[in-house]
Inverse folding.
């Protein structure tokens, strides 16, 4: 059996994702789709709208056959680390293909950019440092540096200021740098732009616009119905009925505030990605901020992207220290979230080739290794009211992988 | 001018406290009453019902002339440390008398017990250790040890299982051990027992029964009216109108739960009073407890009193570590909360004799020294809804002492 791997967040799973999976199978003729999906906290430094279990269920209902968790140590990182962890896991699952969605849609553009930048690592670093000295954020500096190193040549330029092109480029780079045998392809994202805030077609809308409708005070869940598979829509409805809320940063703002107010600058400086005295800005503005959004707005400077600051806040919530992160640079387990019949057939056939242990039951696994993921899940559970917290809090210990 | 000092919590200020102040003045013929009062968290390991500012206001309305804060480092400790800090502060305020309420009401009983135990420190320690080895809590072991060392003699026995006798004995001991020139007297507590849960007379009720009525779902604030001075009653009403709640442990339970879920056993072990592997019980039961009360019930063993466990929880909330506490064994400032006209006259006359700096404005004082009190106040402020938190959060920085 052949598998095509995808790297996803499914926040929530919508028709654009469905299109991506279908195209991936069509392009590669793979027998199954294997997805590696971020757990409770996402790359943008936000809690996922609904639990990883609910999102895994959506995926399995709509064409994914095998879904595993991208550990916290990669899911909450900038593009390069995120991509490297995800690609390592897909490789460990013996995927034959990797197919990602991009604004570009042309794998040649990724290949050309990668070739042009080969051996120019030092030049790139110097340019990035130079731009950052001018006060730019890291992602902006990096995209400008790459532009400078590649635009003089005659090629279909890859626009590396687009979020999915950036991630795609990092996947491409990770596969080639590691010389993984995976074949890579890309699908152009349909119609709605990544950052689109309004619905742009009859059945495709960005996850951002779907979330906005779901989370807005006057939002109406029925309005998003055309843009999601029926099963996703139903699971979203059920989640709110069960847990009384979707998870947003504002649900965790009081915890962040509490933790900041009880911390010393020294303790905060130990948190992952907290650098250059940023802890003093955090301690200064926590007292006056009226909401999480207001807090980030106050702390923000040109130097740090909104996303980076949100990620630091996630690390404060989960109490993730520099030392702990630096000891987790390579994935060392695969947490299985769910399978279809075909997914299970694939596992049976390929399991012996896998380079990493598969965790199906937590009780049977060394909990030390997975401590950070468990902690993140438990903190995530605190985003729902006390009355319904218990089930979500225990889920990571008690729930077996979903079987479809 | 002469001053009589009192050590108080006023949670809330009621007619029993009024009686105590009036008797203290009557017995000592002092010109003013100086009170040292616990800040946001109390000796029993609980948040005060209302802020220290509201409680100071109550006191100044009812006969106290000068009120200062007992720092967190003493207010949240077992009787001996609590008493020693309080007595040091009253001495620093040049008080001529110390008058405490007790179940006994006879200062001779305190004096006799003190004399009998003089030079028996080692015997006492041995007995206490012996009883604790049998599984008893420290307070129980201590009271039994003292009983054993004193009952064979012919004297009016002091019952040291009564909470106010215990505290009184520690005041007595602190004054005499330090050879402070203060004269000590005691007033018998009126009618309602300390632990009484029902009102026992027409105008006197215990603070416990008043709190129960205030905090009970079906409680009716009007029922407590006969037992409080009118000003206290009004201030309690106003507080609820302004901050929408009184402060109870349940208001902080989600913060405690969050902090426990994000902590390692090692981090918890650094918290003050966390001993003998208790951190593992905390981490075990936080996942299943349905409320703060339920949590303490689950963690509790014969070895630890309810009060002690609650105090540890306060230290977790305020992130108070062993190292920080051990560096605060002697008071090194006096935080002024308020004065009457007479209180100000006294300050003017005596200020030069004071051995500790008086803090009236935080901005003018070294904030390092008072960091723990500020932190405790800010964490305390998180017990009210987000909407009204800001004022309470800033109060310790902006509010000058109350002037009546």
């Amino acid at each position: 059996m052949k598998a095509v791997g995808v790297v996803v967040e499914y926040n929530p799973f919508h028709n654009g994702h469905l299109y991506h999976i279908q195209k991936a199978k069509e392009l590669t003729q793979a027998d199954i789709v294997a997805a590696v999906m971020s757990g409770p906290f996402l790359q943008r430094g936000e809690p996922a709208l609904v639990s990883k279990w609910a999102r895994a269920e959506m995926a399995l209902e709509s064409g994914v056959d095998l879904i595993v968790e991208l550990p916290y140590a990669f899911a909450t990182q900038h593009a390069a680390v995120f991509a490297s962890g995800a690609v390592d896991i897909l490789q460990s699952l013996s995927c034959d293909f990797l197919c990602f969605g991009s604004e570009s849609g042309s794998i040649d553009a990724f290949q050309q950019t990668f070739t042009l930048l080969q051996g120019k690592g030092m030049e790139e670093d110097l340019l990035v440092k130079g731009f950052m000295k001018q006060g730019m954020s890291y992602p902006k500096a990096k995209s400008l540096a790459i532009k400078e190193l590649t635009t003089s040549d005659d090629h279909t330029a890859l626009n590396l200021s687009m979020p999915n092109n950036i991630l795609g480029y990092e996947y491409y780079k990770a596969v080639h740098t590691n010389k993984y045998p995976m074949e890579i392809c890309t699908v152009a994202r349909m119609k709605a732009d990544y950052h689109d805030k309004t619905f742009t077609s009859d059945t495709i809308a960005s996850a951002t616009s779907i979330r906005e409708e779901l989370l807005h005070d006057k939002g109406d869940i029925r309005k998003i119905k055309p843009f999601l598979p029926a099963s996703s829509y139903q699971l979203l409805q059920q989640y709110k009925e069960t847990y009384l809320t979707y998870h947003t940063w504002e649900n965790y703002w009081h915890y962040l505030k509490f933790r900041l107010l009880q911390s010393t600058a020294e303790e905060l400086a130990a948190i992952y990605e907290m650098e250059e005295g940023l802890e003093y800005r955090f301690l200064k503005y926590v007292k006056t901020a009226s909401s999480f959004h207001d807090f980030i707005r106050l702390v923000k400077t040109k130097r740090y992207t909104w996303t980076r600051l949100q990620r630091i806040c996630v690390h404060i919530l989960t109490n993730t220290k520099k030392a702990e992160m630096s000891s987790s640079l390579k994935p060392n387990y695969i947490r299985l979230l769910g399978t279809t019949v075909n997914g299970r057939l694939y596992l049976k056939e390929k399991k012996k080739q896998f380079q990493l242990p598969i965790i199906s039951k937590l009780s049977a696994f060394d909990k030390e290794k997975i401590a950070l993921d468990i902690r993140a899940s438990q903190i995530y559970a605190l985003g729902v009211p006390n009355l319904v917290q218990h089930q979500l809090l225990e889920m990571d210990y008690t729930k077996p992988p979903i079987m479809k």
In short: The interface with chain A takes residues 253-255, 257-259, 261-263, 267, 287-288, 290, 317-319, 375, 378-379, 382, 386, 390, 393-394 of chain B (CB under 8 Å).
